[in-house]
Each structure stands twice: as structure tokens, then as C-alpha cells.
Amino acid sequence: MSCQISPEQIDATIAFHGHSCPGLAIGIRAAELALRELENPRDTEIVAVVETDMCGVDALQFLLGTTMGKGNLIHRDHGKMAFSFFRRATGKGVRALLNPAARGGMDDEMAELMQASGDGTATEAQKNRMTELRAGLQQRFMTLPLEEMFCVTPVEQGAPRPPKILESLACAHCGEKTMESRTRRFAGQTLCIPCFQMVEQKI
Prior knowledge:
Residues 168-199 form the Zinc finger DksA/TraR C4-type domain. By secondary structure, the protein is α+β, with helices and mostly antiparallel strands. It folds into two domains: 7-154, CATH 3.30.1330.130; 168-200, Wheat Germ Agglutinin (Isolectin 2), domain 1, CATH 3.30.60.20. The chain is built from seven helices and nine strands. The strands form three sheets. A five-stranded mixed sheet has the order 2-1-3-4-5. It has a two-stranded antiparallel sheet with strand order 6-7. The protein starts with 6 loop residues before the first helix and ends with a helix.
């Protein structure tokens, strides 16, 4: 089944992100899945945990209202095309991992063309083919049934806890105020992470 998010919302999401691309389409469909599985929660009820920093995260921010500033968008730098969604009121959670089959076997050709584009050797024909493949992949992502787009599994441990306001401590080296939970102790001093890394580095 094609994407059920309205064309107007899709256009607004593209405007928010700045361009249309396959990565953004993944995020749009992930947001659609979250709304379906969690029964249309308000943005203050939903938490998104993303395992990537790609374009699709912007779609989640725009369509779901999940943001780092509100504490309901959490980035875990795992390099996976995976998104977990939770509804705080019920504790229900699901994880959606992009199904490799959703890419329709285009990866090898895409990788070759992207390499040529990246090193500046792509011919005009290769550039045109890349544009054609990207458009086809984006269209595929926007029309696949969600069940074919993602591998979905329940998440049992519940939503991450809401953010807490903690004391800020002055770093003993640079003097800058740092949230207590992000400080490190070294040689009896309280340090921010950058200063700790400078004195603790092993190489």
C-alpha cells in the first residue's frame, strides 16, 4: 500500500529537510509506521530512538514532533537504518529496521555510481543513471507496503526515561559549566569530556 501520509504533509516535510531523496522517504515511511503502530500519539507522548543520522531523521522531527530539545529524539550512533518508537502512556514500543529487500537490488549499481560521482570521474551518462536510480528507489520506498519496507519487532523494555535537569559543574581545566552526568573524574578533579580526553588519551 502506498504511503498514507498526505501529499501536503510530504511536501512540507521535503521543504523542512531542503530536498527530496530516498533517505527522506525512509523517514517518512518510518513516521507513518510509528503513527500506525502507536495509534497516533501526540508529539509529547512519543519517543523516537534513531540508530542513524541520515536524512530520514528530519522526517521524524517534522511528522512526529520528536526533537532533541524536547528530549524525545535520542540518537544512538550505531550506523543502522533502524528506528525505535515508544508511547510513554502505554509503554508500547516497536523497532523498525529497513528491510534490505526494500532496496530492490539496486545497491551494487548505486554504490559503483556513487563512487564515480564522489571521486569526480562520473560521466554524464553515469550521472543521469544515478539520478534515474535515486528517483526509482524513492518511488519504491513511497509505494511499498510497510510490512515489506521494514522488519518490525516489539521492544519490551519500555520507553527511555524522560530527561532530567541536573546540576552543572565547572570543569577544573577549562572552567566551562558541564552537566554533572557528562563530567569525568581524573586525578581528583572534575573534568568535562573534551578536557578529560586530552589528559587521559593513551596515544
